[in-house]
Amino acid sequence: MSAQRMKIGCAGLGRMGKRHALNFLERTPRAELVAASSPDPAELEWAKTHLVPFGVTLYQNYDDMLKHEGLEAIVVASATAVHAEQAIKAIEADKHVLCEKPLSTSVEVSQSVVDAANKKPNLKVMCGFSRRFDKSYRDAYNKMQAGSIGAPSVLRSQTCDKLDPSGFFVAYAQFSGGIFVDCSIHDIDLTLWFFGAASKVKSVSAVGITAVEPDLRKHNDRDNAVGLVEFYDGKIAYFYASRMMAAGQEDTTEIIGTKGKLAVNTQPAMNHVNLYDETGIRREIPQTYWDRFEYAFVTEANEFTAAVLDNKPLPLELTAAVQAVRIGAALQESLISNQKIFFDEQGNRTEASRL
Amino acid sequence: MSAQRMKIGCAGLGRMGKRHALNFLERTPRAELVAASSPDPAELEWAKTHLVPFGVTLYQNYDDMLKHEGLEAIVVASATAVHAEQAIKAIEADKHVLCEKPLSTSVEVSQSVVDAANKKPNLKVMCGFSRRFDKSYRDAYNKMQAGSIGAPSVLRSQTCDKLDPSGFFVAYAQFSGGIFVDCSIHDIDLTLWFFGAASKVKSVSAVGITAVEPDLRKHNDRDNAVGLVEFYDGKIAYFYASRMMAAGQEDTTEIIGTKGKLAVNTQPAMNHVNLYDETGIRREIPQTYWDRFEYAFVTEANEFTAAVLDNKPLPLELTAAVQAVRIGAALQESLISNQKIFFDEQGNRTEASRL
Amino acid sequence: MSAQRMKIGCAGLGRMGKRHALNFLERTPRAELVAASSPDPAELEWAKTHLVPFGVTLYQNYDDMLKHEGLEAIVVASATAVHAEQAIKAIEADKHVLCEKPLSTSVEVSQSVVDAANKKPNLKVMCGFSRRFDKSYRDAYNKMQAGSIGAPSVLRSQTCDKLDPSGFFVAYAQFSGGIFVDCSIHDIDLTLWFFGAASKVKSVSAVGITAVEPDLRKHNDRDNAVGLVEFYDGKIAYFYASRMMAAGQEDTTEIIGTKGKLAVNTQPAMNHVNLYDETGIRREIPQTYWDRFEYAFVTEANEFTAAVLDNKPLPLELTAAVQAVRIGAALQESLISNQKIFFDEQGNRTEASRL
Amino acid sequence: MSAQRMKIGCAGLGRMGKRHALNFLERTPRAELVAASSPDPAELEWAKTHLVPFGVTLYQNYDDMLKHEGLEAIVVASATAVHAEQAIKAIEADKHVLCEKPLSTSVEVSQSVVDAANKKPNLKVMCGFSRRFDKSYRDAYNKMQAGSIGAPSVLRSQTCDKLDPSGFFVAYAQFSGGIFVDCSIHDIDLTLWFFGAASKVKSVSAVGITAVEPDLRKHNDRDNAVGLVEFYDGKIAYFYASRMMAAGQEDTTEIIGTKGKLAVNTQPAMNHVNLYDETGIRREIPQTYWDRFEYAFVTEANEFTAAVLDNKPLPLELTAAVQAVRIGAALQESLISNQKIFFDEQGNRTEASRL
What we know:
Four copies of one chain form a homotetramer. By secondary structure, chain A is α/β, with parallel strands linked by helices. Helices cover about 35% and strands about 25% of the residues of chain A. In chain A, the strands form three sheets. Chain A has an eight-stranded mixed beta sheet, with helices on one face. In chain A, strands 3-2-1-4-5-6 form a six-stranded parallel beta sheet, with helices on both faces. The first copy, chain A, has a two-stranded antiparallel ribbon with strand order 13-14. In chain A, helix 5 packs antiparallel against helix 11 (about 320-335). Strand 12 (about 260-265) of chain B pairs antiparallel with strand 13 (about 275) of chain C, so a sheet runs across the interface.
């Protein structure tokens, strides 16, 4: 291992931006966080305390940061609406890119990032599907690859957030692409991982309700939704997404094969503690996505850095990120139109179902 | 409590018939098994050893058994195809009836049992949805009723059988009504219990595959299927049924409310034993439906008997059994036609979706 | 199977007596409860409602019940203080005996029951160590016998009661023989089962506290106690007994072998329900010994009956019951004297330890 | 937070030394690993690849490292036999010290480290009891402090290693101080944490066996041992240590109070994966102490660093480390002598027990 370190800049210093910045600053030994950008004064103020003392240069303007001397890579952790634009600019400026998911809520815009990346095959461009870096999911994947469950056939996966009583997610729904693009995108990505990136969708159908936040309907969204995806090679995936979990974050996946099943997180737990009292035996569970996947983000940062420094393949293909958005957007459309949607084997919509 | 005992006869002595007969003989103190009928010589032979020494009279012919002196009730545990006919004959002969599920795989035939029962309001006629008598489901129901989870909104339930390598279920599929009518009927009944019997279906959609038994397609059936049911009052239920579980019977239910969730059997276990060895920590799970629900059937027999003897209301309404078949049959149709099916609030099919 | 039934009488109708009586009345098909005795008017009153209508004859006097026409067996479920006397009288009257544990809190008195039984080898005399009939313990035992854990070497077991705020157990301590004889007797019996009845004790030591009920010291007892038992063949057992569990009954056992471990009930649960709410994930556990072992008592009644009717060996040896009391009494003595106690290989006390 | 970093050197580069060195190099942002020492050529060779490229200076001689320009702190991660000597030298050279447990297997030698530290009150000297930094143990401690279990009364704790078929631990036993000093020391430290550092021991007794490695007897050690510790304030702790776990590392603790119980790791799991196959449901568990406590060591390094840089109190008192060795050594003596050992309230041995 050489002592050479990858110089990276962080675009965006909101909730996820702060985390990515600190991960590259403190928990990615082979990377050096040299720059960070944000248009937001409060975020820059935070950075003056937490980043600047450690040698990080701040930029109000993303384009200016791209010109930072010696900068080799960018982590795009800004608002979803500018993910694609910033990623493309970075690629054009010959920077490696780790982009938060999704590339965009639009399939076409997502594809434009892939197109930009394809023109610079020497660059490492990755969309950060954090669960791919989680130890449990990797263990499950490896066990499946080793034949533990025979042929994977049915996948159930859910991304369920703890109810945020502030109702923040209502305003957020305007830009999130909807619950299937925002939450289930992870489950869809897992499906493409476990079933194979070449899996072809035959149909999608979805239903949803607003059990706690009727206002979501203004933004064509729901607070609970279930979606069904049928693939051409005789596989099924079904997803549940929710904004109203009482106990905390419940992200659970089951991969059912012809000879076994792998269950990831069907018994959620925050740690190894159980409290026995007169109400029974109780354990707490992670409250947020970060609580559950904190170390996956650290691994993501380290593996992205290693791929850049050692010029090795990235752990996941950028094209899968577009396919995930395509499926998420179709589910969201089905959710709102209340219609089942069919595709032919080339991925084009068809009117009638092929029986 | 009086020492008076209800005289009951058992129709059918196949796998379920034997169990019902022995339950009424040995584990239902207030009932007396006085008769049993079967056209099958092997079944009658079994009964000569296990029932006759304890005072049970055998009949080759069901109609003859109905005339047994003093007979007050019948448990119909024969092949599904004759459930309705035998139940109706028993009702007409003024016997109380406990009928194995389903009343019929046909909605119309199921309804004819209800019609017959309605003419004899003094009789107790019950369809044996065994999970309603399971301690865990009852505990969950009581907790929901006590407000533990707020308003129930989403229900996930699965009935998944261990793979039977003999492939028996292929031949059986010809008469079972399909995987949604045979397996998911329990999950549907639970839905009607937890969401309320008056819940009105807005749409159903389903997909399925044949991962292990392609021959099932001959009988318009699948070995794995997922179904989505949308209700008019803003609730969703989704079901998974499978014939290929590796570890055993996996019947799991989650009821998600606005303030909490109740999970039934998300951590299956046959007993309280865990084996630690070089492969990790392992526990076994029930192999069959009977392993899991044996005591629910005992409770069912005892509560049916008590309702008859004490002239108290039955624990579940017969009409729900028809509604369960209606939903199961619609899901099965959707599974085969690959179309989403819509209903208006009166339960009639509609062409277009109501948005 | 013949329809012949064993005629049994129940001595004592207190908490355990009622349960044994009803088990033989309602859940032991091959037995017929023909008689019951109690000197207590309230208990007899209860029996008039619950037993007499089903043909049970009541006796105020135990000796009178022994003369009941056709009586073949007695279940002794009275106060511990009269277990041995009633068991011996029954044996002398040529009745088979199922005696609640312990035979006596005194080793000598316990042995006198064995002596009486030895004179009537045709009689079935069993001490009811209920855990031997529990499905989980039997599964663990069978797995151990099948070699799953190599050579069993260390056994940890606990019998821990839910705190009874009435403090009933303080008065009870006067006659119970102390916490090791009353509670740990089950764990000791399990040790003799899993390690073998011929296991020879080398030393015992114990400590205890009164965390919630200092008054127990009046009766030379404690509310929490830990005991260590060393055997001559290089095995160890250690026990914990408590009267102050908050959540419910916690009876847990681990058998550690050279190649694996069997854990029984290290994850207690009343049923299959988990409640998810803002405090986390919660399950309830059995509140009492009966909640946990109800079906073991039913199996015990049925297997005792079958051994009598079919003249087959009993599932456990009566001598083990004496050895269990011997070990329990030594632990209790060590608890109170605060001294370690040593034995030679013939079971005699020795002053110094053999190193 | 300032960008100032604490310059630290690592003494010893064996199994634990490598881990501590890398933790300070890569996962302790506020520390700078500037030096490392080892007399072992192979260890130095490893360091040339893994440490030198990142600016770490290597020393064959510990005393030379102490003179490293600007060095502020030492992590002592060498063989136990030199812990105390190296710690004292570092203190005398005015370095802050984080010393691996135990300070020494001898109580007197351990105390000499405390004495040396007392002369330099400006220095931070800490013994690294890693479990104090584990999230689960901290959560349990905080819950206890918040009153969740009433008054803590009984503590059960075990440190059980996976069987190492190489038998390495036999040779290791010569220097380890024995199983109670090497393994149970953690459980003892937890006891002093949860019960309070001022807890006074009244008696200890222990028994042990050699189930898999009879050769351990040559070094006065055992492969399985159980110990009982009684405290003067009416509390009990009991410990189990083993070298022969089949499934992996099993470090479990229960703290039982008058109103509840906290259980830490009674359901061990390596991650969130469960595999369902024809043998049942299976999960893997951590294989080593490191697998289980990796992040506790990272937290330890970071908190030690913060205490030094910010001149804040250390999270644990050094004196507790001596008391832990004292109890561990007494248990080991009891294990070998087979005698119960008594102490008066001043900590002196007494012949007879105080009743």
